[in-house]
Amino acid sequence: MEKIKLTQAQIDAINKALSHYGDADYLVEMHQNVINKGHEWSQWNALNELSVTALSHALKYGFEVEEQPEWQHISTSFNENYDKLLAIFESIGKTTTEELLVEQDYELASLSYAMQQKDQSEIERSKKRLAEIHKELEGLG
What we know:
The protein has 141 residues and is mainly α. The chain has 2 domains: 4-65, no CATH class; 70-140, no CATH class. It is 73% helix and 4% strand. The protein has a two-stranded parallel sheet with strand order 1-2. The chain is globular, with a radius of gyration of 15 Å. The model has no long low-confidence stretch (mean pLDDT 80).
């Protein structure tokens, strides 16, 4: 079988999730659970773009970087910065509220960029996540 082409953000998310879970089969199982429950990954949000079949194929047969249009490189840097911010919050023990506020800021920036690019699927994903964050923040307050 042929390697699957993925974005750099998807590859980074797979590698981070694998280092967290330690097992490819378990990661595929977790991905299936996330999808079946209608949820999305927040920590490795690039996984949300992959079907269970695509993730399984990538882990079984390998993957390579898909060339991206120039505008997507900006999106990738958002993801990298967001991951770094989460790691900082975890390392200094900040509260869940502060983490959610950082994620909210990230999603607002992602939504703004998606609107500029007229990327309807990303707009809908960001709006859905913003609504979830809003509910989570209300529950903490």
